[in-house]
Amino acid sequence: MSKFPVWFQPVNFDRNLPKDLEYRILQIGVYTGDATEWLLNNRNVVSIDDVDTWEGSLEHQKGTPGYIDFQEIEQYYDSRFRDDTRVTKYKMTSDKFFANDQGKTYNFIYIDGDHTALQTAIDGLNAYRVLETNGILGFDDYLWDMGRGPEFNPKRGIEGVFHVLDGLLNVQEIDYQAWLRKV
């Protein structure tokens, strides 16, 4: 059992990710790797590229009520997946990851990284470029509110992706998470 808060809710994954596919996955924002573990144990995963800075974001900075020691988080993540050849860890920003285009494509991309509206939109638009046709794009925290204004919340960024890519993505589900399929 993890000593870290667990926010991962597998019900949406189970509902939106068909069991009969082989998955090539990209995750932006990984935290302790709870989603990684669930995917490895419950779907046919060929590969998972996990991208995270393991430095936290605005809501986790030292001196805030939500402070988390991300060095411990990263060590815990490493202890869980260092020997699984299906998992590749990228310790960097999502911007740097997408700038280092490796020609890879994915059939599932999950975004739970920087929660600001701007970065969420940038991650969604970058993800679209490497998402295969019929691939699934999931955003966490659609309804999350940092309490500092809409520019600090993912919802506005996710809705920006909806507007820019209108007609190119079909909505599968929108609740606390947003699940889309590339057409």
Topology:
Blueprint: H1 10-16, E1 22-28, H2 34-42, E2 44-52, H3 70-81, E3 87-91, H4 94-99, E4 106-111, H5 117-130, E5 131-139, H6 154-164, E6 169-174, E7 178-182
Helix pairs in contact: 5-6
Write down the domain tally: 1
Strand content: 25-35%
Q: Nearest-angstrom radius of gyration?
A: 15 Å
Largest sheet features: 7 strands, mixed
Average residue-wise pLDDT: 91
What is the number of strand segments?
7
CATH superfamily: Vaccinia Virus protein VP39
Description:
- By secondary structure, the chain is of the alpha/beta class.
- The chain has a single domain, classed as Rossmann fold, CATH 3.40.50.150.
- Helices cover 32% and strands 26% of the residues.
- A seven-stranded mixed β-sheet has the order 3-2-1-4-5-7-6, sandwiched between helices.
- Helix 5 crosses helix 6.
- It is globular, with a radius of gyration of 15 Å.
- The chain starts with 9 loop residues before the first helix and ends with a strand.
